[in-house]
TrEMBL record:
Native organism taxonomy: Archaea, Methanobacteriati, Methanobacteriota, Methanomada group, Methanobacteria
Name the UniProt record assigns to this protein: Ribonuclease VapC
TM spans (from-to): none
Entry GO terms, CC: preribosome, small subunit precursor
GO molecular function: hydrolase activity; metal ion binding; RNA endonuclease activity
An annotated GO BP: maturation of SSU-rRNA
One Pfam family hit: PIN_6
InterPro entries according to UniProt: NOB1, Ribonuclease_PIN
Entry keyword set: Hydrolase, Metal-binding, Nuclease
Domain Ribonuclease PIN: 7-91
Length: 169
């Protein structure tokens, strides 16, 4: 049986979440996102008491996640810190653990659902389905990959917009 662990993003820490029954991990990047004094004090106490530990993803896990989110279109919506949290959970899964990521970030939840890592929300209901993203020209309707970097169509010069599409299972 896989050992359950929790991977916490900043929203989990700000919301005061950590498990007393299982190990809790976060990244140094998530810690830097904690700005309010109350959350900083609670985090410092949890770190000192060993309730939350800091770990970082391996480079190969980060690269794998970057490929996945480029394909799904979430690359434009996930910060480096978000990617680090997802990659850390991916690392734990690869090493035989059962990670549960605690986050209110819908793009992170979308990515986690895609890679079959469990998640739970702190304050929001969470996502119900996987969403992918494409870019479409307003003029000629040409479809571009989600990581298309330009704001104008290479064919007709019209603006390009991002559109969500349901993922095919």
């Amino acid at each position: 049986m896989q050992k359950k662990i929790y991977v916490l993003d900043a929203s989990a820490i700000i919301g005061g979440f950590y498990s007393k029954s299982y190990a809790n991990f976060t990244t140094s990047g998530a810690i830097l996102e904690i700005k309010d004094l109350k959350s900083k004090i609670l985090l410092q106490s949890a770190l000192e008491n060993g309730h939350i530990k800091v770990d970082e993803p391996d480079p190969e896990d980060t690269e794998e996640i970057n490929q996945i989110i480029t394909s799904s279109g979430d690359i434009l919506r996930l910060s480096d810190v978000d990617r680090g949290i997802v990659a850390l959970a991916f690392k734990f899964k690869r090493n035989g653990f059962k990670p549960i990521v605690v986050t209110d970030d819908y793009s992170m939840q979308n990515t986690l659902k895609t890679i079959r890592i469990d998640y739970q929300s702190v304050l929001t209901p969470g996502i119900k389905e996987i969403i992918n993203w494409v870019k479409i020209c307003k003029g000629c309707k040409k479809r571009y990959p989600s990581d298309y970097k330009f704001e104008e169509c290479e064919i007709c010069g019209s603006p390009v917009f991002r559109k969500r599409v349901k993922a095919v299972k």
